[in-house]
Amino acid sequence: MQELAAGLHHWTARHPVIRTRVHCTYAAPARALIDPLVPDEGLEAFDGLPRPEVVLLTNRHHYRHSDRFQRAFGCVVRASAPGMHEFEGTEREVEPFAWGEEVAPGIVAHEVGVLCPDESALHIQHGAGALAVADGVVRLRSADLGFVPDHLLGADPQAIRRGLRASYARLLELDFDALLLAHGEPFADGGKEALRAFTDGG
Questions:
Q1: Phi first, then psi: what are they for 115, rounded to 5°?
Q2: Which single residue of 38, 55, 148, 181 could bond 152 by disulfide (Cβ 3.0 to 4.6 Å)?
């Protein structure tokens, strides 16, 4: 686990289903975990940090190890309202949040949509600010932001790409410097300009 900025902690862990390393965040000032897997060093990684209180999912597919944090720390798990059908009839205890809601102290949820109805971005307003995103933009094999492969974008990849760029362009009105990705190395700084270049088609 590394501290990207004051109170903003990042780590990777191997996803048990897709079997690749994915990216997770802990916003300590908000006591909020975002899309978490247990770090390689275990839950002991959180010793000395403020105790986590909430798990926030950037989309319904990022439940990951939320139940382990729920058991260990008593966290409430939250996901956007349009994705709640994923948890119906399961043992997973997940509470919905709405767009524009402050989902943890200093963290506001914003709609991305397009890729799936529950695709979210979380605006972390602590320090210089950060934006945590789900699957609509990734950073896999290069230093630049990009899209997931076309076969994961649905029946009309070109329209999905246009829609995602438009959604992220609206989020550029927010104040943030760091960009946190569920899939790909984060930008500790310069994230807003990287996202701007992406929305411009770069």
A1: -65, -40
A2: 148
- The three-class DSSP label of residue 129 is coil
Q: In CATH, what number does 2-199 get?
A: 3.60.15.10
pTM of the model: 0.96
Task: Tell me the two tokens of residue 110.
Answer: 């914003």
CA angle 179, 183, 186 (to 5 degrees): 30
- The mean per-residue pLDDT over the stretch 174-196 comes to 97
Distance separating alpha carbons of residues 165 and 155, to the nearest angstrom: 17
The tokens describing 181, both together, are 């990705």
Domain ranges of the chain: 2-199
